[in-house]
């Protein structure tokens, strides 16, 4: 592996691929979209998102040694319906009064070029499971105020029942009101922390 030294710049080149420089890249909640997509009546896609997201991506010299730490405010869920959001927050689903946050802590990074798999402990509803995220580095910009920003995208699929979120209603014609499988899509904008 060949690395182009770029200590004074926010990116570097490894084996011909541009990646973020070593450092702590803090999540910008206002420009991050953490979404989940389930199905209603087993057909219609319903999309929700969390606006309360904080944490950081810590990029190491060796990309495999990098870390991701994220905390999600579960009460910040928005799905486009106040009634549905209140139900999602209730004890039947997320139970935010008992489990106000969810977390993701990476345990292993397998990185090649500008993408990789970040595996970590996802804790939702008080239950922790190992979850792999397919992650890509989407690019870098310098903002008008001199901040260095790196963008990442991540995708995975989970079964919500694995996390103890089991509420559902059986449909008369067969199937369930709400899908067990949930897709998670993340578009993450980060800002390089200044020493």
From TrEMBL:
It holds the Pfam family YceI. Belongs to the UPF0312 family. Gene3D superfamilies: Lipid/polyisoprenoid-binding, YceI-like (2.40.128.110). The lineage of its organism: Bacteria, Bacillati, Actinomycetota, Actinomycetes, Propionibacteriales. SMART domains: YceI (SM00867). This is Polyisoprenoid-binding protein YceI. InterPro entries: Lipid/polyisoprenoid-bd_YceI (IPR007372), TTHA0802/YceI-like_sf (IPR036761). Residues 24-191 form the Lipid/polyisoprenoid-binding YceI-like domain.
């Amino acid at each position: 592996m060949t690395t182009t030294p770029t200590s004074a710049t926010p990116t570097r080149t490894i084996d011909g691929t541009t990646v973020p420089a070593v450092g702590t890249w803090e999540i910008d909640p206002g420009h991050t979209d953490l979404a989940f997509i389930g199905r209603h009546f087993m057909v219609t896609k319903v999309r929700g998102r969390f606006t309360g997201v904080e944490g950081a991506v810590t990029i190491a010299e060796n990309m495999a040694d990098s870390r991701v730490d994220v905390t999600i405010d579960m009460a910040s869920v928005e799905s486009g319906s106040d009634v549905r959001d209140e139900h999602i927050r209730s004890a039947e689903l997320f139970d935010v009064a008992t489990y106000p946050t969810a977390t993701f802590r990476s345990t292993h990074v397998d990185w090649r070029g500008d993408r990789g798999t970040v595996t970590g402990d996802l804790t939702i509803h008080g239950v922790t499971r190992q979850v792999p995220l397919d992650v890509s580095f989407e690019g870098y910009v310098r903002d008008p105020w001199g901040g260095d920003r790196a963008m990442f995208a991540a995708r995975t699929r989970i079964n919500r029942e694995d996390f103890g979120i089991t509420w559902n209603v059986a449909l008369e014609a067969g199937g369930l009101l709400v899908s067990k499988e949930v897709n998670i899509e993340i578009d993450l904008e980060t800002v390089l922390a200044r020493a």
